[in-house]
Specification:
The protein is of the alpha/beta class. It has 6 helices and 13 strands.
């Protein structure tokens, strides 16, 4: 639950919650947890060849009402080949995906796309959605996948948009190493959670 002004509390997640999860990599624990809370869940991953239409895909739909899309988070409104991936993959800008799926707002946006997050966040339209049409934004930043000056500029853009960083921590799984940004060594990758203004 989440505290409300006046000392009360409101239910979290709220009724009618919608969750987008970019980058599943064959792991659906986050999506299942959101679905159990009654949220409409959409998961996106263009690298999972052969998953869409498989028995596992149908099981996710039947048991948890989770919709899988073989589509990645990108920068183009009409879809394009995902940067750094094969020609058979397609990525699309967040506002375009929302329009196609008929969503005006999102409750949670989760992004773990192995470095492709930087290109998407470099687009002002993505930041505008996170600021004005989403409540929470959870992301894994891969600090070694972008020039530090460009990365810092994108992080500043998120802050200037009013997104509130409430958690920043190293990834608890996998091999860790450090990346030097602005003279400071940071663990890589790092997981960050933001709240939209007014949430």
């Amino acid at each position: 639950q989440q505290a409300e002004a006046g000392g009360g509390a409101k239910k979290w997640p709220p009724p009618g919650c919608v969750v987008y999860s970019f980058g599943s990599n064959w792991q659906f624990s986050f999506e299942r947890a959101a679905a159990v809370q009654g949220c409409e869940v959409h998961t996106f991953d263009p690298t999972m060849t052969g998953f869409k239409g498989s028995d596992d895909d149908l099981s996710l739909r039947r048991e948890f009402n989770i919709s899988f899309h073989d589509l990645g988070l990108g920068t183009e409104a009409d879809g394009s080949v995902c940067r750094g991936l094969s020609r058979s993959t397609t990525c699309e800008a967040l506002p375009s995906i929302m329009s196609r799926l008929g969503h005006q707002s999102l409750t949670v946006v989760k992004v773990d796309v192995e470095g492709a997050e930087w290109a998407a966040l470099g687009e002002q339209t993505t930041v505008d959605v996170l600021k004005n049409r989403a409540q929470q934004f959870v992301i894994e930043f891969h600090l070694d996948r972008i020039d530090e000056h460009k990365g810092i500029a994108i992080l500043k853009r998120l802050r200037e948009a009013g997104l509130v960083l409430w958690n920043w921590d190293s990834n608890a799984h996998g091999k860790k190493f450090f990346v030097k940004w602005n003279g400071i060594h940071f663990p890589n990758p790092v997981e960050a959670s933001y709240l939209a203004p007014g949430v």
